[in-house]
Amino acid sequence: MNKRTIACIGCGNMGGAMLGGWLSVAGQRGYRVLAMTRTPARAAALAARGLELCETAEEAARQADILVLAVKPYQVEDVLARVAPALGPETILVSVAAGVSVERLRTACGGRCPVVRCMPNTPALVGKGVFALCFDDPSLKPDARERVQRLFADLGVCVELPEGRMTAFSALVGAGPAYVFQMMQGLVQAGVTQGFSWAQSRELVAALFEGCACMARQETTPLMEMRDNVCSPAGLTIAGVNVLDRAGLSGLLVDAVLTAEQRGREMETK
Asked: Which of 149, 84, 83, 78 is nearest to 116 (CA)?
C-alpha cells in the first residue's frame, strides 16, 4: 500500500482523539500522520507516539493526501482561506465542523479539492466512535470515498448519509453521549444512595451499559422484549420499570433528540 499522509488542523478533544486512533494503526495501514495546532503542548503525548507537528496550517495542507479540519465552525472560512492555495484536486478535505455545509466548504476552498463532511461523537476518544460521512460533493471520486471510509472505519462505526440527514444524526448520535452519561449519572447516584462507593457504583454502571450495548448489537430481539425478559411477575424490576413508564422516560428521550435537531437547524440558518 502506498503511504498516505493524513494531516489534521486542530488537536482539541476530537482532533486529538482521531489522531490517536490513526497513530495506533499507522504502521499497519501505511499512514503518515501529522498535525498543526496552536498549542503544541496539548499534542506532546501524540508527538511521542510519532505524530509529526507542522508549524503552520499551510504546511500541513501542502503535505496532506487527506486534510482533516477539526476546528470550531466559526474558524472554518478563515482557516481555509489560508490553506486554499496549498490544496489541489488530489487532496481530500474532510471537515468535522458541525453545521458547515458542503457548499460552504467548497466555496471556502475555492473548489480546489473535493470535500467531505464528517460528524463524529466523543466515544472516538476510545476507538468506539460513530461517524456520519457525507459524500454529496459531485467532484468526489469513488476511490476517494473509499479512502475516507477506510480511514474513519479505523476509529469506529461509519455510516454514509446525505447532507439533509446530518443534523438529525448530530441530534441523535453526536449529542447522544450527553443523554447516555446523564442516565449513567442517575444510576451511579442511586448506587451511592444504596451504599456503594462512588467508584464502585460508577464501575458497575459502566459495565452495565457496556453489556447491554453488546446485547443490543448482537441480538435482533426487539428492545422492549429484551426489557420485558428482565421483568419477573411481581418482581423488583417491573416495579422500577413502572416508575420509568409513569415518568415517560422514552417520550422524554424522543423530545430531547427532536429539540436538539430543531436547535441544530436554527443554527444552520444563521
From this structure: 149
